[in-house]
Amino acid sequence: MLTDLSDRAHQHESNSFRDRVWRVIFLSNTKSGKAFDIVLLWLIGLSVFVVMLESVESYHVNYPETFGLLEWTFTILFTIEYAVRIWVVRDKKAYIFSFFGIIDLLSIIPSYATLLMPHGPQFLVVVRILRLLRVFRVLKMARHLGEANLLMNAFRASLPKITVFLFFVLAVTTIMGTFMYVIEGLVAGNTGFSSMPQSIYWGIVTISTVGYGDVAPITPIGKVIASMIMLIGYGTLAVPTGIVMGEINVELAKIQPDNRKCSECGHVGHDQKAVFCKICGTKL
Amino acid sequence: MLTDLSDRAHQHESNSFRDRVWRVIFLSNTKSGKAFDIVLLWLIGLSVFVVMLESVESYHVNYPETFGLLEWTFTILFTIEYAVRIWVVRDKKAYIFSFFGIIDLLSIIPSYATLLMPHGPQFLVVVRILRLLRVFRVLKMARHLGEANLLMNAFRASLPKITVFLFFVLAVTTIMGTFMYVIEGLVAGNTGFSSMPQSIYWGIVTISTVGYGDVAPITPIGKVIASMIMLIGYGTLAVPTGIVMGEINVELAKIQPDNRKCSECGHVGHDQKAVFCKICGTKL
Amino acid sequence: MLTDLSDRAHQHESNSFRDRVWRVIFLSNTKSGKAFDIVLLWLIGLSVFVVMLESVESYHVNYPETFGLLEWTFTILFTIEYAVRIWVVRDKKAYIFSFFGIIDLLSIIPSYATLLMPHGPQFLVVVRILRLLRVFRVLKMARHLGEANLLMNAFRASLPKITVFLFFVLAVTTIMGTFMYVIEGLVAGNTGFSSMPQSIYWGIVTISTVGYGDVAPITPIGKVIASMIMLIGYGTLAVPTGIVMGEINVELAKIQPDNRKCSECGHVGHDQKAVFCKICGTKL
Amino acid sequence: MLTDLSDRAHQHESNSFRDRVWRVIFLSNTKSGKAFDIVLLWLIGLSVFVVMLESVESYHVNYPETFGLLEWTFTILFTIEYAVRIWVVRDKKAYIFSFFGIIDLLSIIPSYATLLMPHGPQFLVVVRILRLLRVFRVLKMARHLGEANLLMNAFRASLPKITVFLFFVLAVTTIMGTFMYVIEGLVAGNTGFSSMPQSIYWGIVTISTVGYGDVAPITPIGKVIASMIMLIGYGTLAVPTGIVMGEINVELAKIQPDNRKCSECGHVGHDQKAVFCKICGTKL
């Protein structure tokens, strides 16, 4: 990120071919930059879709050539893109070891790896799904998506509160899961509660209101405890909602205030009822 | 819509028989217009109910004549209505190719189609369920349903934010579904995770807290990942709620305060029942 | 209710034995009135608990005498209470045909009915569960439960909006359930989608995130549509929450404002920032 | 709690070895006090993790010595801690019979009990899971976790409202569960609805949107009633959310605004970063 920014500062003015390519690939404020982003988004989407389809056995077995061809097309295109990215970026090392640099590499390596080890483990191929993460690089640029920003800020602000809440939920689930392990597992011999981790898993499935039903209580007392967990889950589902809500309101409040600018200190973001600048005291 | 409005402007004054019929059918501000709406609502409701019942095999086999009779009654009534609508509307082409014009046609065609192809595909008959959409035409007129409006506005305003949120959720589900495909499907041989689309389907079932239970993890690691997805779903269920909430508040804020301005101190934002300015005591 | 109130007005002063009994039974502002309420709550709770236990076959078969004894104890106590209520109330007819009067009668009739028809239908006995509704009579009096009031008001205010919302949800579920009926039921032969009502039932189970799993899609397209319904359910779960929230805020806003009373017109419930009475213009 | 505080007041000044140990164990405002807390948290976490793993039969059977060794290590460490706590605390009786004193004892007793009764009931061992509760003692000290506090206050404030709400939900579930008992259990012979408690359990599973699927309606009327319960659950899930939300807002309102008062115009409620009064421009 930081490297990107310093690069940007240096390269924005210069006009060599390399720098123009850099702007197309790394920025999205020009026409060709936007076009590049859109083409890249489609390519990523398609390649992810192909990886998914290939994992379906009947397709995989019946059309091996088609999938091979498509996969190599994507791999070569992404390899070219990767090479060009390395070429145009000034601080090459910083790019290569950045989060997105590693993702870029991981999304082409599996195909080459199958050349070296044709009978290697199949799950290596699955790594290609990480291409999906490249979508976020494009989205990161298209910051016009103010919504994503707002959500991100609200999410980040409410993370500590939600973590504390989830910790409490997990503690409750552990204690209740242990009760269930004793009542259903040890006493009643319900195989779904054969161990404590298993019972806690059931507790999480229940308190989050998912309720697969692969594990369910069979004793009356077990059902009473299960009902309590359900009602707790039902009642406290509210807490993270309330937290995020509060933070979104805070975020919205930051946006909505008027954009009067103080003539003296230039401060923007005054209260709507404010008459004087709250920083330097000048009349607005 | 636009055609309707221009029609309305032209026809509101004139008083020919055709125009009076137009007002009864297309408007709902007269007594007979309202009566027509209510009769139509009942007919649509009944016809949809009959279509549903007919799809139950035991009824379908035992009472074919009754269903045939009912169906033809509805078809003839709706055909007459369709014909009258075409007759009274000025811009016939615009009506026929409008959204509701097509729905009106689609809700009568299947019955006639069975005459031409008595052994045609059964699912053609199902198209008749689209009659349900005609309910919204009646509701659209009865705009006294201010609630629907408020919800619609709040929903429309929060759609981009919710879309961004759902995109993130889908990305998380895809990555985690892929992990599960490797762990449960490839390694443990769980048939429920036999392909990536299948695993992502499971991920959506889980993160939305639906939890059918037709697919469930069997390995310890799979259960840990599943627990994480559940807690994510449980924790982020909050986000769309928060978004919609914020927008509903914005909508409510637009409605509630009246904008009377105090002639003395200029204060705006008085209570709707207020008679005097609450700041300076001047009569409003 | 109205009769109660007029009764109350008349009887509050008089001091005959009948009127004192009336105050104990129908009011809860005296010590003995509160004691009566608490005893009644316990009796109702116990009798409901006994009805529930009796429905468990093993208990029902093994301890018929115990249940018979308990049931007749409750029946006789409630019969005495019913008789006394009729005796003390002025407008007997109004009481007997009031909502709670009918519930009072229904909670004793089943026991007597079994005397007349010892081999009558068992589900008649189940009517006794309606005793539970009698709890609300006691709660209604104990209006100190301000929380119940607040919730009730917020719920009543948001009911029309929630109704409109549920109508939309049902319409979406019907249309999508029909799609699923065609794809899963007619084409793929999934017995869980054998008719349209069945498919709509599945749709409701899914969109409400309950997800029993007794009915689940088996075709890829069916799973894609199911995923869409889940995400719609997940995303729009927010809407009723937002609505109720807004109304609760409105209710809270009614309570929180300061309780300054206008010295001139006596109006209470001014805005916290108000300097002058908004009704008559007097300085507060 | 109270004893702790009075102890604290007395011991804070003195500087004997015992008092210095007391400060390390019971307070967390010194460097060594924090280090002790962190070590204790890790020990508790690890011991809980080992208890969980031991409950898995395959581990339990294959590595009995490892688990025995680990368990005795934790037991001896916690016993030393317990002894030291008793030694340093002034009011020993108050500590021993306090909530956390009992938890401290309960987390070491099971291991010693197995010495006395080597073939005693296995579920005694499960009591060790209560060690998890000791985590909250450490957390209680680390009150820097302001988030937990905020959540706790909001939760405590909304508890009465949520209780009233859950009572209504349970009443609705009981009545509807009884209907289902008659329709599905008595009439249709669905074994999942064999008794009223069983039917009410199903009702709670459904209204909380958990939906295991181990019990599901099979008759059309049963499915209609089930759909109604689901929609009620879907619609009223909002209520506790709304309640908690409101309380969290109240809590946040208590924290955020600073209460500096302008010396010139008396305005209260300035922004926390404000330097000048936003109303009259006076320096704060």
Question: Can you walk through the features of this model?
Answer:
The structure is a homotetramer of 284-residue chains. Residues 1-7 of chain A have low confidence and may be disordered. Chain A has helices at 2-11, 17-26, 31-54, 57-62, 64-88, 92-96, 99-106, 109-116, 123-126, 131-141, 146-187, 196-207, 220-236, 238-255. Chain A is flat. Chain A is 70% helix and 0% strand. The longest helix of chain A has 42 residues, at 146-187. The first copy, chain A, folds into 2 domains: 12-139, Voltage-gated potassium channels. Chain C (Four Helix Bundle (Hemerythrin (Met), subunit A), Up-down Bundle); 148-254, Orthogonal Bundle (Helix Hairpins). The two termini of chain A are 37 Å apart. With 284 residues, chain A is mainly alpha-helical. Chains in contact: A-B, A-C, A-D, B-C, B-D, C-D. At the A-D interface, helix 11, helix 12, helix 13 and helix 14 of A face helix 3, helix 11, helix 12 and helix 14 of D.
Task: Give a short synopsis of this structure.
Chain A is mostly helical and 284 residues long.
Arithmetic mean of pLDDT of chain A: 79
Largest sheet of chain A: none
The count of strands of chain A amounts to 0
In oligomeric terms, what are we looking at? homotetramer
Biggest interface, and residues per chain? A-D, 57 and 65 residues
CATH class category of the largest domain in chain A: Mainly Alpha
Provide the domain count of chain A: 2
CATH architecture verdict of the largest domain in chain A: Up-down Bundle
CATH superfamily of the largest domain in chain A: Voltage-gated potassium channels. Chain C
Quick one: overall form of chain A? flat
Radius of gyration of chain A: 27 Å
Helix content of chain A: over 70%
Distance between the termini of chain A: 37 Å
The total count of helices of chain A amounts to: 14
Q: Which residues of chain A sit in consecutive blocks of at least 5 with pLDDT less than 50?
A: 1-7
Which class of secondary structure composition applies to the elements of chain A?
mainly alpha
**What is the H-and-E element order of chain A?**
HHHHHHHHHHHHHH
Kindly report the CATH topology of the largest domain in chain A.
Answer: Four Helix Bundle (Hemerythrin (Met), subunit A)
Into which percentage range does the β-strand content of chain A fall?
under 5%
